[in-house]
């Protein structure tokens, strides 16, 4: 997984990894369209909606938009985009890494993933750390695939994995309508700001 | 699972669930207290009890805009059968001003999500002129697309969304 620079690359050099602030600033809108293409095929997101300055507002409010975002140490937009990145742990290679261990022994790991899938299927969208979100994708997809099949054996298999049986029954009832045409990829992960206590990179994971 | 467009409204699913794809042409700044709302920001219900300060851009004071605030994830994102819930509707906002200068047709109701993490979307439409927009009879089952089609508002000119979940935990596990 490559180290990805933040989303908004310049419109011109869409393939370069390094982007320059000048072209970003020029492409940020003052009153015009804001469609910012991006270079890679991964999932960086824009930190904030691009309204750094509103020239028509000199009279109304003295609030400086950059100060009121609540993010510390903000001098300009250049600092903000570095926050939602790989979390400092993004390396170029994944050689030989089969299973995400999540810093837990196998039984705890399985229980954690079962709990997370249960909660995701119950609430539809949860916020957790990025490692956990990307580890649980496989199991959420598995559960939805079981529900797509719909037979009694699959239902019992799902009941053995998900902690709450009402969720299994609800899942088996609504998955054919909701995901009938979709083949795989039933979740979406959106990276977000790190957690305050330990600066862990966080993400929302939601059912598509 | 990766999307081609990195626009946060597309990534967050707002374009698709609530809106059509549009081009942003007017600045929209929403502020709750001291926090400016950016796409995907996480805000608790205790911080959004009162209506936000909304300031819009544009140049000509003769143009009027409509602001709609909806929640597409009611009652729960996993089962949004009451999509969408209308929280706020302000019309006749002149350009370069804010919602204080508009006509608040549906008063602001602070969101209180019970289950899951809800997205709350604020959409700005451009009106053709000063028009009477009638309030919908009820707040749930609101459809932004139909509303825009009904009053000839066209595509949105600006949108922002944020996330909101209940203050104290997720409600626990209930068997």
The secondary-structure class of chain B comes to: mainly beta
CATH level 1 class label of chain B: Alpha Beta
How far the N terminus sits from the C terminus of chain B, by CA atoms, comes to 32 Å
Look at the structure and give the CATH class of the domain at 106-207 in chain A. Answer: Alpha Beta
Largest interface: A-B, 57 and 50 residues
What overall geometry of chain A do the principal axes of the alpha carbons give? globular
Question: What's the short version?
Answer:
Chain A is mainly alpha-helical.
Report what the structure shows.
The complex is a heterodimer of chains A (208) and B (175). A three-stranded antiparallel β-sheet of chain A has the order 1-3-2, with helices on one face. Chain A has a domain at 106-207: Ribosomal protein L17 (50s Ribosomal Protein L17, Chain: A). Chain A has helices at residues 21-27, 77-80, 106-123, 130-149, 152-159, 165-179, and strands at residues 125-129, 187-192, 202-207. Chain A is mainly alpha-helical and 208 residues long. Mean pLDDT of chain A is 74; it is low at 1-17 and 31-80. In chain A, helix 3 crosses helix 4 (130-149) and helix 4 crosses helix 6 (165-179). Chain B is mainly beta and 175 residues long. Chain B has one domain (6-163): Alpha-Beta Complex (Phosphatidylethanolamine-binding Protein). Chain B has helices at 8-11, 14-17, 144-150; strands at residues 28-32, 35-36, 41-43, 53-56, 64-71, 85-94, 103-106, 118-126, 158-164. In chain B, the strands form two sheets. Chain B has a six-stranded mixed β-sheet, with no helix packed on it. Chain B is globular and about 45 Å long. The relative contact order of chain B is 0.24. The chains are: A mainly alpha (208), B mainly beta (175). Chains A and B meet through helix 3, strand 1, helix 6, strand 2 and strand 3 of A and strand 1 and strand 2 of B.
């Amino acid at each position: 997984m490559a180290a990805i620079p933040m989303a908004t690359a310049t419109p011109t050099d869409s393939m370069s990894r390094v982007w320059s602030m000048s072209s970003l600033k020029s492409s940020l809108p003052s009153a015009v369209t804001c469609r910012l293409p991006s270079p890679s095929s991964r999932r960086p997101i824009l930190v904030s909606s691009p309204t750094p300055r509103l020239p028509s507002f000199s009279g109304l409010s003295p609030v400086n938009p950059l100060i009121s975002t609540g993010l510390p140490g903000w001098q300009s937009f250049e600092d903000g985009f570095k926050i939602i990145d790989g979390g400092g742990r993004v390396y170029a290679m994944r050689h030989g890494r089969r299973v995400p261990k999540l810093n837990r022994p196998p039984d705890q790991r399985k229980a954690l993933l079962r709990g997370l899938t249960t909660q995701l299927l119950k609430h539809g969208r949860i916020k957790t750390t990025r490692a956990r979100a990307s580890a649980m994708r496989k199991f959420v997809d598995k559960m939805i695939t079981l529900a797509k099949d719909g037979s009694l054996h699959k239902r019992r298999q799902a009941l053995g994995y998900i902690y709450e049986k009402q969720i299994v029954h609800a899942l088996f009832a609504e998955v054919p309508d909701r995901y009938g045409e979709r083949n795989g990829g039933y979740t979406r992960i959106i990276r977000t700001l790190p957690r305050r206590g330990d600066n862990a990179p966080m993400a929302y994971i939601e059912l598509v | 699972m990766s999307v081609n467009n990195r626009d946060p409204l597309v990534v967050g699913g707002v374009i698709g669930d609530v809106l059509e794809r549009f081009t942003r042409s007017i600045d929209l700044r929403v502020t709750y207290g001291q926090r400016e709302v950016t796409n995907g920001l996480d805000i608790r219900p205790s911080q959004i009890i009162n209506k936000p300060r909304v300031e819009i851009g544009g140049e000509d004071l003769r143009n009027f805009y409509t602001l709609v605030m909806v929640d597409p994830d009611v009652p729960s994102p996993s089962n949004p059968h009451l999509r969408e819930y209308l929280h706020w509707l302000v019309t006749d906002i002149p350009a370069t001003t804010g919602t204080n200068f508009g006509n608040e047709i549906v008063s602001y109701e602070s969101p209180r999500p019970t289950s899951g993490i809800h997205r709350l979307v604020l959409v700005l439409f451009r009106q053709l002129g000063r028009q009477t927009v009638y309030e919908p009879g009820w707040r749930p089952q609101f459809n932004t697309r139909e509303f825009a089609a009904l009053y000839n508002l066209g595509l949105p000119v600006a949108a922002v969304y944020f996330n909101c979940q209940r203050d104290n935990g997720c409600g626990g596990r209930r068997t």
